[in-house]
Amino acid sequence: MTSEPAVPDLAMAVCLFAIDPHGLKGILVKSRAGLNRDHFIAFMQDILPSLTPVRRVPVSIAEERLLGGIDLAATLRSGRPLSARGLLAEADGGILILPTAERLSPTIAAHLAATLDDGIVRLERDGISEQRVSRFGIVVLDEGIDDESAPGALVERIAIHIDASAFTQPGDEEGFNCGAIAAARKRMPFVVIDETSIATLCSVARQFGVGSLRAPLLAIRAARAAAAFAGRAKVEEPDLMLAARLILAPRATVLPASEQQQQAETQPEPPAQEPSDSSESQQNDDDNNSPALVDPTLEEIILEAAAAAIPESLLERLKLTGSASMPARSMGKAGAIKQSSKLGRPTGVRAGTLRDGVRLNIVETLRAAAPWQTLRRRDTLSRSSRVEVRAEDFRVTRYKQKTETITIFAVDASGSSAFNRLAEVKGAIELLLGECYVRRDQVALIAFRGRSAELLLPPTRSLVRAKRCLAQLPGGGGTPLAIAIDSASALADGIRRKGQTPIIIIMTDGQANIASDGTQGRERAVQDAIAAGKRMRLAGFTALVIDTSPRARPAAARLAGEMGAEYAALPYADSKALSKLAASPRLR
Amino acid sequence: MLLTRMLRRQRIAPVFDEPRTVESLDRNFESPKKATFPFSAIVGQDEMKLALVIAAIDPSLGGVLVFGDRGTGKSTAIRALAALLPKMHVIADCRYGCDPCSTSARCDECRAREQTGLLKTKLAPVPVVDLPLGVTEDRVVGALDLEMALTRGVKAFQPGLLARANRGFLYIDEVNLLEDHIVDLLLDVAASGENLVEREGLSVRHPARFVLVGTGNPEEGELRPQLLDRFGFSVEVKTPDDLQTRIEVVRRRDSFEQDPAAFMAKWESQDESLRHQITAARGRVSSVLIPDSIREQAARLCMALGTDGLRGELTLIRAARALASFEESNVVETKHLHHVAPATLRHRLRRNVLDESSSSVRVERAITELFSA
Question: Which of A108, A468, B307, B320 could be joined to B348 by an S-S link, Cβ 3.0–4.6 Å?
Answer without folding.
Answer: B307
